[in-house]
């Protein structure tokens, strides 16, 4: 008999990747505050909002943001 183990380590990163793709379109660097504001507007899950809120203030390139937040955009 096989037991199902719940996968709770990572939230679905597709929403995060879609957000980063969208906000970085035509932009090289985005501030943490702008990323957070757009994530709230996109109604991302609370766990992702918490990660974004925990980023140090400053500007991030898309690959930096994805690495820090657990996304796959780069």
Descriptive overview:
- Residues 5-9 have low confidence and may be disordered.
- 50% of the residues lie in helices and 8% in strands.
- It is globular and about 25 Å long.
- A two-stranded antiparallel ribbon has the order 1-2.
- 18% of the residues are buried.
- With 74 residues, it is mainly α.
- The chain has helices spanning 14-23, 32-41, 46-54, 62-69, and strands spanning 29-31, 59-61.
- It has four helices and two strands.
Could you write a compact summary of the structure shown?
The chain is 50% helix and 8% strand.
Helix content: 40-55%
Overall pLDDT level: 87
Please state the structural category: mainly alpha
In this structure, how is the largest beta sheet organized? 2 strands, antiparallel
Q: Cα-atom Rg, whole angstroms? A: 13 Å
Instruction: Quickly count the helices.
Output: 4
Write the layout of secondary structure elements.
Blueprint: H1 14-23, E1 29-31, H2 32-41, H3 46-54, E2 59-61, H4 62-69
Antiparallel strand pairs: 1-2
Helix pairs in contact: 1-4, 2-3
